[in-house]
Amino acid sequence: MTQRRDYIDELKGLGILLVVFGHFMEQYRMGYSFVSASFFCIYAFHMALFCTCSGLVARFNPRKLVTQQLWLYLVGQVIMFVFRAAVLRENFAESGGALAALLLPWRHMWYLYALVFWHLTLPILCWLRDRWRLPGACLGLALAVGLALAGGLVEWPFTLVRVVAFYPFYAFGVLFRPQLDALAAAAAEKCSLRRAALAALLVGYGAYFLRVLLADPILDNSPQLFHDVSYAGGDTVGYRVVFYLAGILTTAALAVVFSSRHRLEGLGRHTLAIYLLHMPILAALIEFKFYDLMRGKPLAVVVLWFTLLACATLAPLNWQPVQTAFDKLANCWYKRK
């Protein structure tokens, strides 16, 4: 396995851990400053990391787009639809009807939804990267950021707001693939470079953590954390600019730090079942009042509780038979040649 694949799998492994723990701590973030600060730090970059990794491994293949990516999204939506009807007992008439519930992404499914749209731009991004090298990559990223910033002015239909808002990170992964590969390869040979990147991350996110921790009252800032609304809904141009800068720089620094590690790559190769199913499990835990059991308890108890719930979710979803079943489901129509 090449060095490039190693570091990407490491980053994907880290990313899926942050996704799960970020979601599982969210219920307590407005009641505990420590949880809030941890949540803010995770949401500053975890989806930037995931989107960039998707760009790093993307190859334009119309057949794969239809028989794997679109298929996987539709299968996932059917699973979520059945879960919402049977477990959450949702009244779909109150949220746009059953057809909308079936076709439009529910919660975390926005990411698989976005990948279908992002994949359509691959020929342009790859042309800019391969034809014009670094200047073309810079131009492509500038256009992607400009599109995302302008997109905040639009009240997007069909849950497209995040598709546009998070696009720059995917574009960054595609456009700067050669530079990130070279950076990771160089860092794997230089311990001093890895230590410098780790120190920068600790200082930067340590300061951010303290800022949120000491805020009074506890910060909410949901529009700027999730980027799921337009500027009229509460997001801002300034915060998006900072979000893009922080996400790109953090991802590059993490590529350096994890360039020679091999602890998370196994997890990173098998993120599908975890990503797809952790959210309905979380929704069921909330629905059946598991989170209410520890509300108002001491911080240490709360942290231990949501960590236990997250680990209890990760363990079976990372079980090899589960991973194999979902890989077969995802690729049942798409056969690699």
UniProtKB/TrEMBL annotation:
One Pfam family it belongs to: Acyl_transf_3
Domain Acyltransferase: 6-313
Gene Ontology MF term list: acyltransferase activity, transferring groups other than amino-acyl groups
Keyword Transferase carried by entry: yes
Keywords, comma-separated and alphabetical: Acyltransferase, Membrane, Transferase, Transmembrane, Transmembrane helix
Keyword Cell inner membrane: no
Segments passing through the bilayer: 7-25, 37-58, 70-88, 108-127, 134-154, 160-176, 196-214, 241-260, 272-291, 297-319
Superkingdom of the organism of origin: Bacteria
InterPro entries: Acyl_transf_3_dom, Nod_factor_acetyltransferase
Name of the featured protein: Acyltransferase family protein
